[in-house]
Amino acid sequence: MSLIERIPVPTPFDVGNVNSYLLKGNPLTLIDPGPATDAAYEAISAGLSSVGLGIEDIDRLLLTHPHADHFGQMQRLATEAN
């Protein structure tokens, strides 16, 4: 069983997909949740669902750097997470 899950997240930017990472520990942590788009939200939801989790299960959100393709989804997820 992997403690880290990679979740590919689509972006509307030239960079293409970015990666979000789920650290399956205590606290459950999501790193770099992607841009503020519905497609990114759906990718995060699907990635969590594939390991039996939901957005409400997230305990902590982390960002590696302040680019829109990494942090745009932060506010939406923060309001729905634990």
Give a written overview of the molecule:
- The structure is a single chain.
- The protein has a four-stranded mixed sheet, with helices on one face.
- 28% of the residues lie in helices and 22% in strands.
- It is globular and about 35 Å long.
- The protein contains three helices and four strands; from the N terminus they run E-E-E-H-E-H-H.
- By secondary structure, it is of the alpha+beta class.
* Sequence stretches where pLDDT stays below 50 over 5 or more residues: none
- Arithmetic mean pLDDT: 94
Roughly how much helix do the residues carry, as a percent range? Answer: 25-40%
Overall form: globular
Class of secondary structure makeup: alpha+beta
Question: How would you sum up the major sheet?
Answer: 4 strands, mixed
Backbone CA Rg: 11 Å
Please provide the ordered H/E string of secondary-structure elements: EEEHEHH
Our measurement of the CA-to-CA distance between the termini, rounded to an integer number of angstroms, reads 24 Å
Question: Would you count the extended β strands for me?
Answer: 4
Strand order of the largest sheet: 1-2-3-4
Total helices: the number is: 3
Please state roughly what percent of the residues sit in beta strands, choosing from under 5%, 5-15%, 15-25%, 25-35%, 35-45% or over 45%: 15-25%
